[in-house]
Amino acid sequence: KIEGRQRGPAYVSKVTRVWREALDALGQQKFEVRKEWQEALAHVAEGHQTTLGPYHRPWH
Fold first, then answer.
1. Closest-CA residue to 42 (of 26, 18, 22, 23)
2. What's the rounded Cα separation, in Å, for the pair 12 and 22?
3. How far is the C-alpha of 22 from the C-alpha of 43, rounded, in Å?
4. What element of type H or E holds 21?
5. Do 31 and 25 meet the contact criterion of CB atoms below 8 Å apart?
6. What was the pLDDT predicted at 39?
7. Are 27 and 56 in contact (CB under 8 A)?
8. pLDDT (tens digit, 9 = 90+) per residue, 3-49?
9. What is the pLDDT, as a whole number, of residue 2?
10. According to the model, what pLDDT value does residue 28 have?
11. Buried/exposed 24-34: b ≥16 CB within 10 Å, e otherwise
């Protein structure tokens, strides 16, 4: 699912374009995530950082 309800048209356009290209590439012999996809999505992605919590602290 691509979440686009609270996103602008540029976000939805970029994500759906990359998603379509990735789906089309699935039919090829060897699927690999393309660097240009990652770069395109990095410009519109949010939430790259995590908060301090159990993932950054030992459990004992």
1. 18
2. 15
3. 17
4. helix 9-25
5. yes
6. 92
7. no
8. 778 888 888 899 999 999 999 999 877 889 999 999 998 888 876 66
9. 76
10. 77
11. eeeeeeeeeee
Which pLDDT band holds residue 60 (cuts at 50, 70, 90)?
low
CB-CB contact of 14 with 21 (8 Å):
no
Give the Cβ contact number of residue 49 at 10 Å: 5
Angle at CA of residue 50, ends 7 and 31, nearest 5° = 65
- From residue 40, alpha-carbon distances to 6, 34, 46 in Å are 19, 10, 13
Query: What is the pTM for the complete model shown?
Result: 0.67
Tokens matching residue 34: 């393309």
Which residues, in sequence order, are CB contacts of 44 under 8 Å at separation 6+?
A: 10, 11, 14, 15
